[in-house]
Amino acid sequence: MKKQGLYDPIFEHENCGAGFICSLEGKKTNGIIHRALNILTCLEHRGAVSSDGRTGDGAGILIQIPHEFFVKECDFEIPDPTEYAVGMLFLPQKVNQSNFCIKIFEDEINKQNLKIIGWRDVPVNSKVVGSIAAKSQPIIKQVFIGKETSDQSEEDFNLKLYLARKISENNIYTSPLTQSDFFYFSSLHNRTIIYKGLLIPEDIERFYIDLSNPLLVTSLALVHQRFSTNTFPTWDLAQPFRYMCHNGEINTLRGNVSRMISREELINSKLISKEFIDKIFPIIIPGKSDSASMDMVLELLLMTGRSLPEIMMILVPEAWEKHKSMDDSKKAFYEFNSCLMEPWDGPASIPFTDGKYIGALLDRNGLRPSRYTVTKDGYVVMSSETGVIEIKPENIEKHGRLEPGKMFLVDMNAGRIVEDEEIKKEIVSKHPYRKWVKDNVLPLSKIPYTGNRTPEEKINFETRLKIFGYTKEDFNTIIIPMCKKGKESIGSMGSDTPLAILSKRPQLLYNYFKQLFAQVTNPPLDGIREEIVTDTSLSVGSDYNIFSLIPDHAKKLKIQNPIISNEDLDKIKYIDHDDFKSSSVKALYKLSKGHNGLEEALENLVNDVEKKVDKGSNIIIISDRNVNKKLAPIPILLACSFVHHSMIKRKKRSKFGIIIESAEPREPHHFSMLFGYGASAINPYLVNEIINYHHEIGLINDVSLDQAITNYNNATAKGILKVMNKIGISTLHSYRGAQIFEALGLRSKFVKKYFNNTPSRIEGVGLYVLEKEISTRLKKAFRSEDEFINIELGGEYKWRRNGEAHMLNPFTISKLQQSVRDESYETYKIYSDSINKQNEQFMTLRGMFKFSKFDPIPIEEVEPWTEIVKRFKTGAMSYGSLSKEAHENLAIAMNRIGGKSNSGEGGEDPNRFKADNNGDSRNSSIKQVASGRFGVSSHYLTNATEIQIKMAQGAKPGEGGQLPGPKVNPMIAKVRNSTPYVGLISPPPHHDIYSIEDLAQLIYDLKNANRKARINVKLVSEVGVGTIAAGVAKAKADVILISGFDGGTGASPLTSLKHAGLPWELGIAEAQQTLVLNNLRSRVVVECDGQLKTGRDVAVACLLGAEEFGFSTAPLVASGCIMMRACHLNTCPVGIATQDPELRKNFKGKPEHVINYMYFVAQELREIMANLGFRTIDEMIGKSEKLDTKDALNYYKIKGIDLSKILYKPNTDKNSVLRNTEKQDHNLKNVLDFKILKESQFSIDKKVKMSLDFNIKNTDRTVGAIISNEISKKYGSKALPKDTLTLNFNGSAGQSFGAFSVKGLKMIVDGNTNDYFGKGLSGATIIVRKPKKATFESHKNIITGNVALYGATSGEAYIGGIAGERFCVRNSGASAVVEGIGDHGCEYMTGGIALILGGIGRNFAAGMSGGIAYIFKDPELYDSRNFNMESIEIEKTEKQDLDIIKDLIEKHYANTFSNIAKEIITNWELSKKMFVKIMPTEYKLALEKLAKENINQIIN
Amino acid sequence: MGKLRGFIEYDRKTEKNIPVYKRLKNFKEFTIKPDDKELEKQGSRCMDCGVPFCHSGCPLGNLIPDFNDAVHRRSWKEALNILHSTNNFPEFTGRLCPAPCESACVLGLVSPPVSIEMIEKYIVERGFSEGWIKANKPKKKTGKKIAVVGSGPAGLAAAQQLNFAGHKVVVYERDEKIGGLLRYGIPDFKLEKSIIDRRVNILIEEGITFITSTEIGKDISINELYKNNDVVLLCGGATIKRDLPIPGFDAVGIVQAMDFLKNQNEIIDNKKTMIPDLNANNKNVIVIGGGDTGSDCIGTSNRQGAKSVVNFEILPKPPKERSLENPWPYWPFTLKSSSSHEEGSNRNWSILTKEFIKDDSGKLTGLKTVKVEWEKSVNERPKLIEIEGSEKVWPCDLVLLALGFTGPEKNILQKLKLKMDSSNKPKTNEYKTNDSKVFAAGDLRRGQSLIVWAISEGREAAYKIDEFLMGSSNLPTKTKGDLPLVK
Fold first, then answer.
1. Is the backbone peptide bond immediately before B329 cis, with ω within 30 degrees of 0?
2. pLDDT in the model for residue A232
3. What pLDDT, in 10s, does the model give residues A1367-1413?
4. What percent of chain A has pLDDT over 70?
5. What is the nearest CA distance from B227 to chain A, expressed in angstroms?
6. CB-count exposure of residue A592 (10 Å: 0-12, 13-18, 19+)
7. Contact A587/A604 with Cβ under 8 angstroms?
8. pLDDT score of A1172 more than 90
């Protein structure tokens, strides 16, 4: 599907299921193929199907070349095995074009002196292809190619094949053929061959007739199926790729690609003749998926002679930077290779093979599941889930999992598994990497300070502040707090100022860009709690030829925190070192020449850089020092990006690093952008002067000047880390140049030239206006030099008369409040007019629309307001962020009018589930499920009408939150199921959603937990949200909410408040267009929120495609909020956003106020509907033709804006559905729970004990949730008496076993389980143990997957084996026993007990604020370096602890027959000394405080 | 900014006054300065609101949260700079302003508002006592000439702003001294006149020329003024006093408040001796008009030694708290009791004077009143209804008419052929009259109003004049953002 409207295929994402199977003995069978394909069938819930019901997103299988088969099948002679290669080729559908391609390829093969042996038409059964896939189905042929000579080495043969293929591709793709993009080699290799296509897994065998032929044999098979976010996948992007397949997402792709392009300039190899080398570029063919791009780099690196495992280590390194126990030689290897290649960063499980090795690798964070089983009869099965192939328990040799950053490898020749340690040891000891690093890397601290200093500026300080647009707010709100606290400032209540493009105040260029962030298809990271995987150091210097393996690669200047001080910059400026030469270039232009001068200066700047690089400089300092009346500063971001991009084009970018010396950057967003567009270090010299000044006048007190600057630099680094983390990138190294931003309000021509490949969708200003803004500032600064104009106030964050305009200002707030209290629609109209009529100052994109094509009807014919308000909702604001009074007020109001209020993420008091005596209901119809899972139990979910999964929130998409301990009063603690006074953290990601198929799983979980509730997925607007929405629709969400960036009432870092995310106008329009294009619109309800304030706002949202509408800020203002913007300070004077009992008394809001507001909005909307001629909202949804842009957009900045893409209507047939008309099919019919329910109904109804047996498969997911829902409905939170119903399962349980299971259930699995075991456990006892017949040792084998017991609130778990990563994350009340766990165990835990009888992974107890963990110090496994000591203390066990431990171990033994439990109990006197207790510091204090309060209560 | 929980920790404090019996002995100001610590605490009560309604409620757009914070941080000089950046004469507003900022203060929603006005006053007083307030002479000259007619707060503010901008400014005043109503209308116990002199001296030092005792149209022709200047700015005030034309209004002893107050002010200035008819000493005084001027008359009468002081107001007694129709942050129509009221007066509401009673010599002996009711009906002005049988006779010797002003004097406006509205105010567009060289500001343009509005008018007019003369202006302007009216 082509780019159209706001839809752009570049933003497609994919996640998937993958796996392989191989025979260690090298036994070749046809059976392996079927078993491998069976893996996919068992993983089908991880893939997706399009609206035609048949077209999958692609699937495929890689096998060894079946020699015997080809000998028999081909009508030409086939040489001996390994003497030839086979290519699997997709060709244009049109025969002439196809022949043209074949001709080109044959020519290239000849040029490489290889021989075409013959062509074979691959027999296929086209009937199984879905209608969508059929449109792009290629001709498929196999080509057989012989070696040049029989003694040609395998490496050389494959290299020649590679060259021939690359050159053919380049020739064909640049040819004018209409179907040139059909040409694609699935594989071309002398060992492997790939059968793949745009098919659902079970159809692969039926499509490729070859696959059923018993002669087609292999000893290994790699399979993959894709889940892409939308339905325009293509044949070539099906996986596996030529050497690998990938489950996950590469977040750093843009940076990786542009760095690869700049590497091309250096590529040189003795093995490749000059004649060919230039013709193989680009290495990465543009426009392909992240995985495809990675594969292209992988194959290039293979040509350099590096081994496949080594290449994987280079591309996806472990988190070595902060690793305390990693072997030094391995660290050195990683450090050295980080000079060659930045990490390809993002969630990734990557199975790979070259026919000799088959293996898999996991990303540094362990964000994808990868389980493997080795059987006694010599097979290895690896896949995203366990249980995908039936294996008898007694045949199991070992169950394992891939660990973060670790590799799993099978050497097919040797017929054995090579352990991670062994592979890597061999690789890292091939060269003296440590010596190479030591001899060559130059740390910044080691550069001698020569005493040379940058001369002082001639223009006075204050004037320069004005030139660079500083305001007092910059000082007071941004810089000074950072200096004092070392942290970025927090704000609240969203952003209601105009977009930069609409602002009348001169804007810095940074403000025209918005940060992108991760949602759904990959997770944001938690750089605070999971700091060990992050790194913000950078290195600067020249790069070298990637084909060569020489120590020179390490000639790099290493900078630990790339925000550098003036002294450090001086060191670099005046560096005297053989390997480094620095030069400064001036980023200034002649003011008198205007924008031509700016353009010219930019060209000169690049030429200047080129000259200096040619003369040997490898550090270029771009500086805006020495501005004066005649020389104005070039926006440093523009200079940086232009140099970066121009030098890539000129093929010289890899020869130098960019250092910025600028007065401009002041907030984390600025710094992030500079790094994102190529900078390697930044010296904010004017900020340093500002800090100095404020320190002198005493505004920065309590800290020394040096400390203040250090604090500022650290706060900035943390801020940048946050910006990186929100898109899921862990190292600055790979963030650099990744340009993860969207331009908003910049001309695409301008963007293309200076910020190439950055999306910009509404056009806007270019160089002319930017220059005008600079010159206005500069002239004013100098004019005011001899007058009395002070530094401007700002007014971005707090309203000021002379500051930036705000939509909520004294006028609008007072009028809105007056109107709802007086019930005066006239007064409301004064309010809404002043927001709607943005004639004097445009504030929003919607402000620029006008309604058109009027077709008036009498207003009486429009559906009544009482119907309309049923589509209205109040936003997700938790009890905790709001006071009880304010929270319940909203709920009562919305329940009275049939709208919906939202619990927010803080749980809800069960007392509210019942109606009040006066008939009011305080129950929030929408219950939110956010990453913290506070209070999310079966009972909570059961009482929802709608369940909302918060993937992101407008105010701070991609970030988590934190409720500090003092705010967690006993009532809030009760509702959130936590301990009073213990701080609560919402992690940035949902730890059970790292990808789209994970979201589908959570939707499935929640649907099971409450079948009647609609599942709503909340997204935030950003470029590409349309494709994400399509994916979410395919993941079976019932409602998709698109939030604008500017909404949000909660606390948020200022950088996020202002700079992350996009307006909803773009998001809703993109989602609507993409869903309609995909034929998915009918299945989902689309909801919109984010600064919706008036009926007109609602009308615009509706015309763009929304059918339900959320309001937060405005109903709060109606309830008395006066936009104090102090929600984060607990001092809200009107009792809304505070828990202070005294302040809460000030709350004066009434449900009537909120109802009046909703009524007014609906009334205003009805007036608009009457004018436009719509009788119902349903008629109105998506009719964007009724919108037009206002004419006379006179203000100079606005002239260039083009909103046509927002108003675009996809050219689909007239009958395309524009709104929700049907229900999702959630596929619940075959859920195992129904079977269980049938058999156990009696037990549940009569509360009698019962025990039942069932078989279970990995496709039986979320077992227990439906039964629990039924029990919750019947018995409320009390559920059933303990162990009423015992359920025994045999086999491998699917994901989310025991999710939200309630008290009274005892669920036992004999076998193993997958991810999310005991998710949201609500009181049940769940047990998993190895089958009796199995012989392996339980405590050395993995038995359950990742993220077990996430958000568990109560219950017990006994795990007879090892669990994966992130065990007990956010556990708040369950007790669990396990025999070993992976990394990040007990993260964010707030309550309950975890007893671990074996090893723990790295970063144990990060952010753990409550509950207790006991760990058995196994002498072989225990490593105290694995603890994250930030929030915990390690204590000795007291008697009462030992009592608990002993009791738990006894129960563990009774439930799992665990050997290790038995041993411990048997030797209790000895073993009891071997336990340590992990006690969160805050928890300890809270318990003491509570004890005291109890005593006081007793005394009183 | 501010102290996080300052508003919870500290109560509102305002200046204390010298006891009534002491302060009635003279005409001096009678407030007692709180110590600096208290002022800092009061500053810390400011909540640093996201939307500071005070800043919107202040007609000058004073940066209230900003100077409150500076005071809280003891950064007094910074506070002074912030204050002066929007207000030329905080020493006037700090004493005289009815502080709409405080009624719009967000804290006022839940507890007594921040003592903004007191803080303002002591910031500027600190500035004077520390010698921080000095003449700020313009660094460049534009060569443009501007005549300002009238030296009240509007004229003075405009003059200072225009002078800053480098224009040559001459202020014409028909009275002997500079200050207009400030000097002649405000009693000394509220504003000692040395406070005006202190500021005027600075203005003179800055280069502004003041020509007093010179009336335009009499001493200098309006044509001459018009010809010799690039711009004429009219700030003559709204000086036509409202009469009470009822039977007996020509009795001796019926005096306009302004005449009464001016006389007392001139006496203190040692310029004049007491005119017996304007002396309240030993008289039964009735002040008609319940506004600020009325209150000033009460205070002055008591100081002159009146036997009794009675006050009439035609409107009903306002409620102590805001009514539902008059919510925060709008200007509150609530009962306001000034220090003068506290010094002794019999206040009467809903009362209408029907007739003055005089003796044969024409001397006032009393007056007749009737009680009234106000009948409200939707979309109409409330109607006045006299209550039958509520007539009453009040014996008195002196009646002070504090009924406000109806508008500016006409002659200059007419001579300049300016378009006027029904109350004789010149029609203006952004302070510009229909004659492009003639601007107007203050009460003359706006009608009678507060000092703080006068200063605001002067500043904004100056901005527009500078823009008119120079093409653009670097002078500060408050722009929009004034609080709306309740209806």
1. yes
2. 63
3. 999 999 999 999 999 999 999 999 999 999 999 999 999 999 999 99
4. 98
5. 29
6. exposed
7. no
8. yes
How does pLDDT run across A581-603, given as a tens digit for each residue?
A: 999 999 999 999 999 999 999 99
Question: Which B residues, 325 through 354, put their C-beta within 8 Å of a C-beta on chain A?
Answer: 325, 327, 329-330
Q: Find the closest chain A residue to B61 by CA distance.
A: A801
C-alpha distances in Å from residue A651, one per residue of A341, A614, A648, A654, A681:
17, 12, 5, 8, 22
Question: Is residue A1050 over pLDDT 80?
Answer: no
Window 1115-1154 of A, Cβ < 8 Å to B: 1122-1126, 1129, 1131, 1133-1134, 1140, 1142-1143, 1146
Query: Which DSSP letter does residue A397 get?
Result: E
Residue A483 annotated among the catalytic residues of the structure:
no
Residue A81 in contact with residue A148, Cβ under 8 Å? no
**Distance between CA atoms of residues A766 and A175, nearest Å:** 34
Residues sharing a CB contact under 8 Å with residue A1136, sequence separation 6 or more, in sequence order = A882, A883, A886, A1116, A1119, A1120, A1121, A1147, A1149
CB B328 within 8 A of CB B108: yes
Nearest CB among B109, B139, B325 relative to A1133 is that of B109
pLDDT value of residue A490: 87
Please list, in sequence order, all residues whose beta carbon lies within 8 angstroms of the beta carbon of residue B440, skipping any fewer than 6 positions away: B233, B234, B235, B418, B425, B426, B428, B431, B433, B461
In the predicted model, is pLDDT for residue A350 greater than 90?
A: yes
Strands (E) located in A1294-1388: 1305-1313, 1322-1329, 1354-1359, 1372-1378
H helical segments located in A784-857? 810-822, 825-836
The pair of structure tokens assigned to A1148 is 């004066």
- Structure tokens given for B431: 């302070």
The predicted structure's pLDDT at residue A399: 96
Instruction: Give pLDDT, residue A366.
Output: 87
Instruction: Mention every residue, 6+ apart, whose C-beta is less than 8 A from residue A319.
Output: A364, A365, A404, A405, A532, A533, A534, A535, A730
Q: Determine whether the interchain pair B53/A1142 forms a contact, defined as Cβ–Cβ distance below 8 Å.
A: no
The catalytic position among A16, A1121, A1132, A1386 is A16
**Complex ipTM, two decimals?**
0.95
Nearest to A205 by CA among A128, A121, A257: A128
> Do A810 and B483 make contact, defined as CB atoms within 8 angstroms?
yes
Residue % of chain A over a pLDDT of 90: 80
Q: Are strands B31-32 and B209-211 parallel, antiparallel or unpaired?
A: unpaired
The 10 Å Cβ neighbour count of residue A93 is 14
Strand partners, A140: A90
Please write the tens of the pLDDT for every residue from A402-419: 999 999 999 999 999 999
Closest CA to A1177 of A836, A870, A948: A870
Q: Going by DSSP bridges, is the β-strand pair A371-375/A379-383 parallel, antiparallel, or unpaired?
A: antiparallel
Element (H, E) at A303: helix A290-303
* pTM of the complete model: 0.94
Mean pLDDT of B212-224: 95
Instruction: Tell me the shortest Cα–Cα distance from A363 to chain B, in angstroms.
Output: 44
In order, the DSSP letters of A205-232 are HHHBGGGG-TT--BSEEEEEEEEESSS-
Q: Rounded to 5 degrees, what are φ and ψ at B324?
A: -60, -35
Nearest Cα residue to B349 out of B373, B384, B381, B323: B373
End-to-end CA distance of chain A: 73
d(CA A739, CA A644): 11
pLDDT of residue A725 exceeding 60, the answer is yes
Beta-carbon contacts of A1459 under 8 Å, excluding residues fewer than 6 positions away, are A1337, A1338, A1339
The whole-chain average pLDDT of chain A stands at 93
- Encode pLDDT of A1242-1271 as tens digits: 999 999 999 999 999 999 999 999 999 999
d(CA B463, CA B458): 9
Please provide the size of chain A in residues.
1500
